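Hi support team,

I'm opening this ticket because the web form for multi-chain structure prediction keeps timing out on my end. I have pasted the exact lines I submitted so you can reproduce it. The total is 765 residues across two entries, so I didn't expect it to be a heavy job. Is there a limit I'm missing, or should I split the entries? Thanks in advance, R.K.
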Amino acid sequence: MAEATIFANQTQTLEPFKGVKKVTIEEYFSSGHRTCQGCESALVMKLMVKAAGPRTIVLGSTGCMYVANTTYYSTPWVVPWMHTQLGSSGSAALGTAAGLKALMKKGKMKAEPINVIAFCGDGGGADMGLGAISATLTHKEYNSLILLYDNESYANTDIQLSGLTPYGAHTTFSPPGTVKRIIHTRWKKNVAGMLAAGHPECRYVATVCASYAVEMMNRVRKALTIPGPTFIHSLDPCPKGWDYDPMLSHELGELAIETGIFPLYEVEDGVVKYYGKTKAIVDGRKRKPVREYLLKQGRFAHFTEEDLAYFQAKVDEMWEKWEMPGVVAFRKQPGAVPSVN
Amino acid sequence: MAHLICEVVYRGIFQKNLASRITRGIVLSARKAGRWGIAFGRYGDSPQRNGIPAKDFAIVADSKEELEQHMARYEPKELHVTICVDDTLGKGVESWAWYGLQPINRLLLPDGHLLVTSTQSPDDLLKDIHTKDSPYHLWILPGKASFGGLWVYKEDHTEVRILGALAKIAPQFLSIDAVSEAIREAEWGSDLKVDSARKAYERIESRPVRITEGNPETPYAFELPRWWEMREGVTIPSLPIGKPIEGTKGYRPERSTVFKKFSTRTMRPVIDFDTCVKCTLCWLQCPDSCFDVMPDGLYDANMESCCGCGVCEAVCPVHNCITMVNEAAFEDNASQWEMWRRDKDAYKVWLTEKIQDKVHVARSHGFRYRGQYEEELASGSDLGGRPVTEGIPGENAEEKGLPSTVHVHESASIVTGIPEAPGA
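Hello R.K., no limit was hit. The queue was backed up. Here is the completed structure from your submission:
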């Protein structure tokens, strides 16, 4: 009987942590990683598997969380982990989930729900792996979670531009000059919103930030308890690429939320729910000015008042003109007649 | 036929630009004296990580052929000069792609030279620096570690002062005139920097270190498996799950046996256990899982995995409960919690002393708000006794069309003509 339920996408039972004191004490991602001082992505890894628990398989696509975490013969992972290619976190998640299901069905391993989590950086997830993630999110019969840890650049290979690098940031591909100050003029992709809008079979998409650790872990737990593919987008301050004192990692995560640059929300069965500080902002709380966030980072050190004003205007637009603040960028046609059914 | 091999040991990213300027400066100075040279980084240290030790090298030779002979090696294994630009690295080097702890003086040839930028005395430094089986010379360039970050470079003359000192150490390869010429013409275009190099040349002194002197501890090491001992494929055994402490509710996560972070930090947390409210935030927010949960519910920072980022201090809600203190102020990696349990009064005295150790406490890697860098430069007098940074216009000022006497504060906030609207 148990086996039949496994084949029907049974997931583990993971109740949300009710407060910080209830958080699991065990670490499934411990020391031995060779990340930077103050690496928020390492924290995301730690919290992610802490939330998922011991019966979990983690797949990592190439990026700093792969290279720094498994430099020859050392690893911080307690749970099984496998490296997968840069663009294939989606394929790896799907394949592993399908493989586990097949092995259980054939009786080659004990039938039990095992969490499959594939993580990818913004380069692997939002640029080259996007197609594979999109495909995975259409396969509703396999349980997997894809976690995009977004440090807004290719941070492993010395800070190149990615599709998620914010407007105007200094990277090795967009160094500010004296004649042309802003080299990177594109606005950041809206990955979570895009994937939520475009994948009707995917029942859960969320954005998280590790500065709000318990809320983040509860989103991971929820994603793992919802059958089928799920997706989480995490914003990770990166002391190397963003050029700030490592001590500020936590604070910059909070500022990204409080300024409204990175809204926290979850889309469960098509229903958008804001949470945390973002919910307060949607309910009318004032957003902090973006300059508080931007001027703490060396990558925006070349910004003038004009650039700050432009950045602020773009964020304001996201909150005031979008169909759903920070989530869905569609706007109504001015003067359009409402459709009649 | 003669050659000189130097390495610069530095904190990755924070001192990346500083180190590359030093090694480049060595080569350019050697070229001014008609020699050949090459500057390069250690392959295994790239991509670099914030604060993690890394190395750059410079080789100077009398002839092109001799230089090529040394370039053929993967990386130098024997050195004439080691330049250490952060004195907390005196405890050894454990780079992100390195195994075990390498003493800072390990690659030095007999009678080699170790040059350290530091505010400490030679005897204090030698408490950290491991003993060596051959004598060498210790040179101290007075000054704090110069931390610049990736995009912002701190122009506090550390690089040229090291070049000046090197001219004293190896005059047969880099004369002070060649160094001055290289600084003036080839690279930095500043007479002020030439002065700094010359002052360092005049003032720097060495102290011989005997084989009995130094930290007698055996550096942390381990055996890597032989190829025939490895498992099929590229597999690495995962860490075992951590265990409760002696049947209590305390918990210590299992830690990597091959990578300890003994030298990856410039600061470490000291904890006032008497004021701790057990809020769990340091434990929860530490990216390195460095906090052990003790049987009484307190959190003990374990120095095997502390990277020194300071997030614990930032998230701690109690004033002065967790304070980051310069790593140079510590001689061992022992548990603070056990020290506190043994003798709470003595711990309080120890803690108060560490926190008030102002010479060592202040050590900022990057900058915490815009303008801090300029402020630091404007008020920046290092402990060498003179304001080294006043009026620096930036490198190659004339070529960039910047006025050469303008104050840094003004010249650094570059707001030039805006050719087009942002986003256009």
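A quick check on our side: The mean pLDDT of chain A is 92. Let us know if the file doesn't open in your viewer.
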